[in-house]
Structure formats: C-alpha cells, structure tokens
C-alpha cells in the first residue's frame, strides 16, 4: 500500500482534525451547560407553573361562564319568578331544568358537582336529581366543619357575587374529600338580602391539583395555591403548616419570583385576575440532576466518539483514497501522463485533466447546439419520407427537434433551381449551395420562420403552414402562391436565377405531410416534363396512368393508425388513396381490381397481429374482408373498408378501456385498504399501480368522472360517518382512524363534504335514532 500513503495520510489527518474540533466544542458546551442548566430549570419551572395557572384560570372562567349561562336560561328564569300557591310545584319545569343542567358537567370536570337552589320552591337541583328540601341534599353532601344551619345561613340565605370559599373538608356521599366553593346568586343583579336562586359549584381539590401534577411529577417537588388573603385553595406535596411556616419566615420574600428556601427553589406567581398566589418548590438535587447527567453523558460520549472516530477515520481514509488512486490510474492510462511524486502533484494532475475534460464537454455542448439545424433537417426528412408510424411519435420528435410543426396543417412544396441539371462539379455545387441559401432567406423574409430542408443539391422542400406562427393570422393558398411568385421575381431581378415550384395538396395534420410531399413530387415531374416554370399545384395537373396509386409508406401508415385505434386518421388515409386513384387517375378494370386486392391484403396483414387474433370477432372480420368483391363500385368498397376499420379500432379501444378499468379498480381497492394511512399520497398510489402520477390522475378522472383526491376524501368521510353513528370513539380518535393527522383538518373536511361538523352530525344522528325508537 505504499502508493496510497500520501492521499491516505491527507484524508486521515483531515478526519482527525475534524474529530478534535467537535470534541473541544463538546467540552466547552459541557462547562457552560452546568451554569445554564440551573437557569433553564428555573425558566422551565416558571413556564410550567404559568401554564398550570393559565389552565386553572380558564377552567374557573368556564365555571363563571356556566353561571352566566344559567342567568339567561329561560326555563330557570320561569322557575325563579313563579309564585307558589297551596304548595303546588312546577314538577315538569323542575324536571326539564334538571335535564338541561345535566350536560354541563360533560365538558368541564370542574362542573362535576354543582347545585342550583330555588328559594321560592326551597328546592336543590343537581345534575340528575332534585331535592325538595335542602336538608335532604345536606344528608349526602355537606361540609365537614359546617352544620346544616351554618351551611344554610352562610350559603343559601346570602347574596353572592362570584364568591369563592377557600378549601374546606367535604363529605360526598360518605366519601371524605376537600373542596373549594364557587357561589353566584341569580339573577346576576341580585343585591344584599335573599335572591331567587343560587348556583353553587363544588370543585374537588384533587381535580385542581391534577392540573399541577406536571411540576411534581417532573421534579418531585410541591405546589401550593392560596387566595389573596392567604387562605388555602389547593396544595400537593406539602402540608398547610409548612406553607404557613415558610410565608411567616422573615428570610422568605413573598414578592420574589424565584428564590432558594430550605434547599428548595421556590417559584411564586400571582394572578392578575383574582389575586391567587401560585407557588412551586423544586428540590436543589433535581436541578443538578440534569447537570450530572450531562456530565456523565458528555464524558462517555466524547470518549467513545474519539475511539470510534479514529477507527472510522482510518476506514474512511482508506475508502476515500482508494477511488482517487483508481481514478489517477485511469486518467494516466487514458492521457499517457505521470503524476509527480508528492500528494500535491497528484491533485494537480487530476485538476488539470478534469479541467481539460470539462472544456471538451463545453465544446461538445457547443457543437451539439451547432448541430441542432442538422437535427431539425433530419426530422423533416423523416417526416416527408413517412417514417413515423403515429401522430404521437411525430409530435414527440418535433418537440425534441424544436421544429415548430406541432399541430399545424398546410401545404408541402418543392423548389427546384433551374439550369443546373446534370452538373456536378465543385464550382457548380458551391453555386447551388449559395443559391439554396438565398432562396431560404428570401422565403424567411416573406413568409417568416417556416420548416425547410434540402433535397439534393438543387431542390428545397418547404412546409407552408396555414397559420402564421408569429402573428397567428391564417395563411391561404393564395398567400403561399403570392410568396413564391414574389420570390421568383426577386431572385430573377437580383441574381438572374429561376426556379420551379411544385406544391402538393392540403395536409390537415402532420401525418398527411408525406402524402402532400408525394403530390408535390408528382407535380414537379409533370412540370419538368412540360418544361414549365413558375408555380404549379398538384390539382392543376391530370395524370394518365396505367397503374394504381398505393405506395408502401401509405400502407404502413394505415396499419399504424389502426393499431393505435385512431379511426379518423385511418379514414383520411383511405380517402386520400381512393381520391388519388379516382380523381387524379383513370384506372383500368384490372388495375382497379388489383387496388382493391392490395387494400384487402393490408387488412389481412392487420389481422395477423396477436391482439386481433385473440378477439372473438376475428373470424367475423376476416370473413367480411374476404367478402369484399373487386367488382363492387369504389363507393361500395369504401363503405365496406370503413366498417372493417371501425370494428378493428373499436377492438383496440375496448382493450385500452379494459386495461384502464383494471387500473382504476386496482386504485380503488388500494385506497379502500389504506385510507386510514395519513401518508397515503398520489405518489404512493402511483407506485402501487406502477404508473406515473399524472397518468393515474387523468385516467381516474376520465373513467370515473371524479378526481382521485375527491374519491379518497369520500372513502374517508363514509367511514367517519359510520364511526360517528356509535359512541365507541371520540372525534379525535375517528380523525386518526380515517387518515387525518389532526382533528382540525378532519373537522374542516367533514364540514366541507357533509355541510355539518362531526359533533353536530353525531348529535343529529342520536336525536333521529331516539325519535325512531320512541315511535
């Protein structure tokens, strides 16, 4: 391995330097992390306590909002304002109100235990029950430190305006707990004295402290909430006596946000809305725990990284240096040069030769651009020769050659320079080359950029489009003739040169260009035969021929179009053949019979294709082809051929449609199986059916009339509707089960498709089912 040593050492030293730099950076980050961890922990504790405070205040605001909803409840207002007589009780109104308040506790766990006291009825309403005497309610629900009279006098017989009673022991159906009490007299404008109704919400201390469990679970510390007067609201992980001792200690500053007290970091936050004080204690060892972990992890990872990095550096140095030496060997072998002795000279050697290759590549690109006219010329020669088998192939080749003939119709023309027949000296060929350039430039000046190509040394083939590519104006036959006559006068006056222009018939599409070119060739032969100069159109001549017109390229184009299922294009080719043999020629009876036989032979060749042999209509079509009589009229033959072509093209189209339907069914099945996958995309569907994305999107739309994305959404919504009709899953769970990453996007999609939200749909479905059962 001596020849690898130079490059190998270079790579190895680089990797070791790269390895040392992050190691130093890791050590520095470790030193700074010790000091930063403390501040980060304090910040996280403050953030966590702040979030808990915000959540708790939102829940309390919902409790207050609940009492305000009660204040505007019409049924409750009716009950509050009723005057009882002879101990009559509005049982239905009380039952209806009790049913209405039953749902409030389902949205906020702070509203699990509340009651409404109606003064005029002396009734206590709770979710699911009505107590027609307060003492009956007190038997199951009462404060541990208040008698019935004290409870009635302090809560039921007074007016309350969003009052909160601090933490008290409470007995809930025999279970001991602690609650804080929110009280609001109804209506809201009740003043001192008695009020028609009182809404009382009993909030379990465990429910409140569960909102603060994030701090205690994370750090193992404690949390305390007290009101503005210092009365306890909720606490976890600490006793009330310890809180009182801490707040009364002169060394403890109650107004400071964070401070250390008895080896605990105490964080204090005050609420601006109700004056409550939130305190959290984080043990010091918990703060340093992360720093110690960082220390252990840093040293362990750094040591392992150094050892592993050196090993990997050796392997990478060898692996990366070996290809360079192989490349050096190849370059030296190809260029026959030797690199210097040092590593530096090896890189200089590669640099020089690669630079030379890049320069050569640029020269090649320049040469390719220079050769682009030759590519266009080759395309036009293939086009007029009829070498393309379908219109799609022509359009693809035209786009590649950038010829500008896509989608055009027009006329094919041949210009032959007069006076040079039989001359082939170097001087004559140079003169003809100059003459062709002059004619091309003259045409460009008059007709714009149109496709042209040379045909031999003294001829130019031109495709005149029927629409000007620059202005978009239509170009008529008279315009083409005007261009050529104008050009003829110009070259005669300026260069004393003349030419003969022969033009074929109109080609409606690119596939008919060879036919128009053949007509132009016939017209040129006719003009040369009569020694005619100027412009001659194919339809201005009358051919007398003892043979029929059905060239091989025309037959091949007809076969190709039928195999592609393009019935209209096939009809144009057949009409062109028949027109050539009836309008431009006078065929004998024998030639007419031979022409019909040749056409029948073309279709019998088509039937030899495997695609048609497997069809159940093979024998029927074959019998029909063989049944075409040569003695029939040309119109009758045309009709029979047209029906045969229609049958064959329908077979091709049917096979295509069957393939399309199988692909669409495969897509539908895959969507039905994978709709719950949120990563199901058009790319994954295309990958499954082994087709391009754009293809399957257009195909699905054509076959089903629906966008693929809309179909996927419908499948998901149908499943969501089925899941919403029962209560086994929440809306968020259903969103995940039908393939949505978030419940928000699922709700938007569901409302867009069905017109209602998922919750509204579930409620309406429940009501409908309940109505059916009741009937």
Question: Short description, anyone?
Answer:
InterPro entries: CdaR_GGDEF (IPR041522), Homeodomain-like_sf (IPR009057), HTH_AraC (IPR018060), HTH_AraC-typ_CS (IPR018062), Tscrpt_reg_AraC-type_HTH (IPR020449). By secondary structure, the protein is α+β, with helices and mostly antiparallel strands.
Number of domains: 5
Average pLDDT confidence is 80
Strand order of the largest sheet: 3-2-1-7-6-5-4
| Total number of strands | 17
Low-confidence stretches: 339-343, 770-775
Output the CATH topology of the largest domain. Answer: Beta-Lactamase
CATH class division of the largest domain: Alpha Beta
Class based on secondary structure composition and strand pairing:
alpha+beta
* Percent in strands: 5-15%
CATH structural architecture of the largest domain: 2-Layer Sandwich
Rounded to the nearest angstrom, the distance between the terminal CA atoms is 94 Å
Helix content: 55-70%
List keywords for this structure.
single chain, alpha+beta, Beta-Lactamase, Alpha-Beta Plaits, 27 helices, elongated, disordered C terminus, DNA-binding transcription factor activity, sequence-specific DNA binding, transmembrane
Q: How would you describe this protein?
A:
Helix 15 (513-529) links the parallel strand 16 (499-507) and strand 17 (534-537). Strands 3-2-1-7-6-5-4 form a 7-stranded antiparallel sheet, sandwiched between helices. Strands 9-8-12-11-10 form a 5-stranded antiparallel sheet, sandwiched between helices. By secondary structure, it is an alpha+beta fold. Residues 339-343 and 770-775 have low confidence and may be disordered. It is elongated and about 135 Å long. 26% of the residues are buried. The longest helix has 67 residues, at 5-71. It has 27 helices and 17 strands. It folds into 5 domains: 51-283, Beta-Lactamase (2-Layer Sandwich); 337-370, no CATH class; 372-540, 2-Layer Sandwich (Alpha-Beta Plaits); 552-657; 675-774, Homeodomain-like (Arc Repressor Mutant, subunit A). Residues 665-764 form the HTH araC/xylS-type domain. GO terms for molecular function: DNA-binding transcription factor activity; sequence-specific DNA binding. The chain crosses the membrane at residues 12-30, 296-318.
